[in-house]
Amino acid sequence: MKIAIDAMGGDHAPKAQVAGTLAAVRAFEDLEVTLVGDEEKIQPHLSGHDRIKLLHTTSVIENDEMPTQAVRRKKDSSMVLAVREVRENRADACISAGNTGALMSSGLLQIGRIEGLERPALAPMLPTLDGEGFLLLDVGANIEARAAHLLQYGIMGDVYMRKVKNRKRPRVGLLNIGAEEGKGNELTKQAYEQMQDADFEFVGNVEARDVLNGGCDVVVCDGFSGNIVLKSIEGTAESLFSILKSELASTMKNKMAAAVLKPSFKNVQQKLSYSHYGGAGLFGLKAPVVKAHGSSDHTAFFHAIRQARQMVSEEVAHIIAADLQKQRGE
User: Fold this and answer.
1) 154-195 pLDDT, tens per residue?
2) Fewer CB atoms inside 10 A, N or C side of the chain?
3) Exposed e or buried b per residue across 82-95, where buried means at least 16 C-beta atoms within 10 angstroms of its C-beta
């Protein structure tokens, strides 16, 4: 199992990537990793390991660069070279915490879409109250979508949750403004009709306020709506913990109570943290590409590597291709 990692993308590069990689190669004996980036910056964090290789480059795609232009102009960047490792069969999957649009562009240009797939989807796992989590797709790979695209998102989400998360019969819901049939705009009404006849378990419409309750394993939507849901959840969690921290430090009585409840607060924070869910898979490509969160620490990178490794071992891309072919009646 070989995975290429863009070691220079993200807020904590390359320290987080290196620490996560070291933890991963210790945990998985079949794993080999190529870290792509500036060797002088990587080496201080890297202890010798015969299953970790370095591919040196000093070029990096920054977050404020135009994605397609950057990919074409910086062909020697750490991100593009990591994706190229997959294209040239030197790696089975790749991971980056860098520019999301650039990673999507590079993946499409170098690895390509699965045959019959109309639009890829960016899909992160998000927390639920029961701790199991749900898959949300799309969160921004495509701002606009057609009903046929949402149906394909449902197919891809079903495969991922069965093969990677071991959910026997994943429940797929359609994000909407109401739970009743017939709600929403033309897109969601058409998607609802198509999903009713799909092979996966479609549970109908789901409202944004209910997605954290654990009623769905997969929530499908267009990229515009999905990105708003994603950012709203992240922002609410950050604001909530900020308010709690301020309130618990406001008086001596509160400080004493906080000291007693500290382990419980840590458990809650861990349950709501993205770091234990891995990254967002770019579903629909011929090989696994994982977008790690820009602020990923070593724990998040370890789980992103675990996620990519499992997507390869379970042949997620191949099964998605087969299910899409079946959906087309071929």
Assistant:
1) 999 999 999 999 999 999 999 999 989 889 999 999 999 999
2) C
3) bbbbbbeeebbbbb
